[in-house]
Amino acid sequence: MATADTQSSASSLESPGGALPLLDVSNTSKENSAGGTMTPIVVSILIPVILSLALRRRGEKKKNAAVTVDVGGEPGYTVRNHRYLSLLETPWEGANTISALFEDTCKNYSPHPLLGTRELIQRETIKSPDGRPLEKVTLGKFTWQTFGEVFERVQHFSSGLVSLGLKKGEKVAIFAETRAEWFIALQACSRRNATVVTIYASLGDESLAHSLNETEVTTVICDRKQLNKLLDMSAQLETVKRVVYMSDSAIKSEPVLSGASSSWTVEPFAKVESLGKESPVEPDLPSPSDVAVIMYTSGSTGLPKGVMMTHGNLVATVAGVTTAIPNLSPKDIYLAYLPLAHVLELVAEITLSAGGASIGYGTPLTLTDTSNKIKKGTKGDASELQPSLIAAVPAILDRVRDGVRKQVDSAGGLKKQMFELAYNRRVAAIEGRWFGAVGPEKFLWDKLVFGKVRAVLGGRVRGVLSGGAPLSRDTQRFMNVCFGAPVGQGYGLTETCAAATFSEWTDPSVGRVGPPIPSTYIKLIDWDEGGYRTSDTPMPRGEIVLGGPCVTLGYFKNQAKTDEVYKVDERGIRWFYTGDIGRFHPDGCLEIIDRKKDIVKLQHGEYVSLGKVESVMMGSHYLDNCMVHADPFHAYAVAIIVPNQPSLESWAKQAGITFDTYEDLCGKKEAEQEVLSDIGKVCKKGKLEKFEIPAKVKLLSEPWTPETGLVTAALKIKREAIRKAFAEDLKKLYL
To answer: Which residues cross the membrane (predicted)?
Structure first.
């Protein structure tokens, strides 16, 4: 599925570690009084295994998840979801705009909890072992607002914006960390038919000024921290007239206006609600074709582009995604902590609320009991909320995996052996080789091994929604096994409102992103230059082109770029050319195998897909992040790597490597060789060719965060920014 803390913090999310007892096998080494006979614990393990073997069965033949379809536009191989003859445009009749969808939902679920926020009991600053100040918080229970109460707040805030002077046709920017007021502000603007401009809280000054000025924003809704940033750069903002800020108990002082900001109207969020309550105004509701959101991408290259999403685009996405999440109901609780300025989180919250689910707000720095910002003894957001659904970008799931692995390795001995046995048995069960997927053996391993692991995320997670970047096969399977939940890996882009595919929860395979959702066509077209064709066997391959009501209007004030990647066919269907390369499996599920921009031809003619190699490399426990670089004038690839500090330091101590600082360790040849050796093993296991595996690496001691400008808010690497920042290091790797 974010804040200063969340967005910068998402990259530094602490893995669930600490003293969690992963295994409860304290008696496994004891012999009973009979001497030499099996102990009760061994018998209790063997019986379920034997029963599962006896109940072994063959997997049933899986039905196709997609079927081919005749469409217009450029020739290619096109499929649609197998359950619907035509594309879905609305989740139900009449819900054709965000405002209509939300109003209907609030009427249906009025007394049910919708938005939850944790009580802040105490903040304090302590010193870390190296002397740095660390903020620690003590948090209480979640306090909830019902659908009915939230709808009232939306009405009041919407009317309050009119009281401040907001007029029809103006644009409102939301520049804040993920929280309940963000969601309320979005819905309030929808009722005024005001276009919301979404901006990442981690965006740099240049990109922020560009986004606000390009869209001619008149009103900014921000949190208290971002207010100070706006005031400091007010001279660069050409059209801003009013600012509404959300409260923050850590900042008591009133904002000080000076210079260009002196003419602004600056009011707290609560006061605007109060103004609207006193002077209610009838809504000015939008139509499906009106632009609901201009979403600025965090930009992997250059200045961010604003993608124009209509109300029709967004509700079509909701219609499609809702069908992909089985049994979505008011019983579900969703943990929200990713940036709402990112399409994954925005669509997730709109979709899940439409299904009656409750949304509890947290942050990456308070996500688990052992997260950086949580004071010892305080529950993390996940263990307090006990969500049934959670969204994550792959970088966060990788860190969860690494955290659990670290605990297992540090436990060692019998506990580690038991974990590995349980893990391998569960993998075999999930992949259909044993009945243990649902039999008594599953109950055994869940009780004995995996229950404590699942407690890290609250113990009730029934599904993980993953998107934003490719998820490694190893991490996907690890989450399946250890958390006992399917990972619904989706594929989509900001330009398609996140919508394209979503893997079926009953599909045990890894590495695929599923069939198209019912509101999207997926077409593969030939890319001759890269050697990908729809006539390829055994699977058709080509550039992925997405079509249907989820495809957005294009880029704001950038017609040239819009015309380059958007096309409308003779039947009126709008298509977006993604630049990604995919292939269809026989059952209609899509696999992403390449990206046109990431393919480099080496000196001897071999092609290296940088993104594919990076995805495989992230399976190494030594990696927190990486960028692979290939040069057409050389015969091998290299990599810039941000290692996982605990893993690298642990290896150094075991290997007897002395170092003064972590930076010193990263500069040692022995460390480089250890990491290089490990990624070589991981890449071979991932079936990469020898020429694809980096031959040299450079280790960096500083993490890549959105604030450094080296990764996006969704934690995808900014390839050009990294190449520029480490140009000298890349040159040295080729010497």
So the answer is: 37-55
Return the closest-CA partner of residue 546 out of 569, 527, 530. 569
- The residues, ordered by sequence, that sit 6+ positions from 518 with a Cβ below 8 Å of its Cβ are 80, 81, 83, 84, 87, 88, 319, 320, 323
Q: Residue 643 — φ and ψ, nearest 5°?
A: -75, 160
Least Cα distance to 113 among 143, 156, 155 occurs for 143
Q: What is the CA angle 278-283-286, rounded to 5?
A: 155
Helix %, strand %, coil % of the chain (to 5): 40, 20, 40
Identify the band that residue 34 occupies on the pLDDT scale cut at 50, 70 and 90: very low
Tell me the range of 158-172, 298-312, 716-730 where mean pLDDT is highest. Answer: 158-172
Quickly tell me which residue has 């029709």 as its tokens: 312
Please write the tens of the pLDDT for every residue from 381-436: 999 999 999 998 888 888 888 888 888 888 888 889 999 999 998 888 887 755 44
Q: Give me 536's structure tokens.
A: 């390829």
What's residue 606's pLDDT? 83
What residue has token string 């599904």?
A: 463
601: pLDDT strictly greater than 90: no
String of b and e for 55-82 (b: at least 16 CB within 10 Å)?
eeeeeeeeeebbeebebebeebbbbbbb
Per the structure block, which two tokens stand in for 432? Answer: 């259909």
Distance CA 137, CA 363 (A): 12
pLDDT at 687: 87
Q: Fill in the amino acid letter for 101.
A: L
CA distances from 178 to 117, 380, 716 (A): 11, 17, 19
Q: What is the percentage of the chain residues whose pLDDT exceeds 90? A: 62
Q: What is the DSSP string of 580-633?
A: EEEEE-TTS-EEEEEEGGGEEE-TTS-EEEHHHHHHHHTTSTTEEEEEEEE-TT
pTM: 0.82
Q: How far apart are CA 162 and CA 453, in angstroms?
A: 50
DSSP-derived secondary structure for 671-722? HHHHHHHHHHHHHHHTT--GGGS-SEEEE-SSPP-GGGTSB-TT--B-HHHH
Domains in the chain (CATH in brackets) are 4-61+376-468+478-489 (no CATH), 109-286 (3.40.50.980), 602-733 (3.30.300.30)
Q: What is the pLDDT of residue 169?
A: 86
Residue closest to 321 by CA, chosen among 550, 161, 140: 550
* Residue 174: burial class (beta carbons within 10 Å; 0-12, 13-18, 19+): buried
> Which conformational region is residue 259 in: left (phi greater than 0), alpha (psi within -120 to 50 degrees), or beta?
left
Measured CA to CA, the distance from residue 147 to residue 468 in angstroms comes to 29
- Residues 309 and 317: beta-carbon distance below 8 Å: no
Q: Render the burial of 590-603: b for 16+ CB within 10 Å, e for the rest.
A: bbbbbbbebbbebe
Q: Is residue 364 left, alpha or beta, with left meaning phi > 0 and alpha meaning psi from -120 to 50?
A: alpha
Amino acid at 435: F
CB burial of residue 497 (10 Å; 0-12, 13-18, 19+): buried
User: How many CB atoms neighbour CB 163 within 10 A?
Assistant: 17
- pLDDT number for residue 673: 95
DSSP H/E element including 212: helix 205-214
pLDDT at residue 435, rounded to an integer: 46
- Mean pLDDT, residues 446-458 taken together: 89
Tokens 């965000």 correspond to 98
Q: Which of 378, 426, 160, 170 is nearest to 271 (CA)?
A: 160
